[in-house]
Amino acid sequence: MGGKGKVDALKREVLIPEAAIRKRVREIADQISNDYKGTEPLLVGILKGSIIFMADLMRALSIPVQMDFMRAASYGSKMASSGTVRVTKDIELPIQGKPVILIEDIVDSGLTLAYIKELLEDRGAASLKICALIDKRERREQDVSLDYCGFQIKEGFLVGYGLDCNEEYRNLPEICVLKE
Ligand code: PRP
Question: Which residues contact 86 (CB under 8 A, 6 or more apart)?
Answer without folding.
Answer: 72, 73, 74, 75
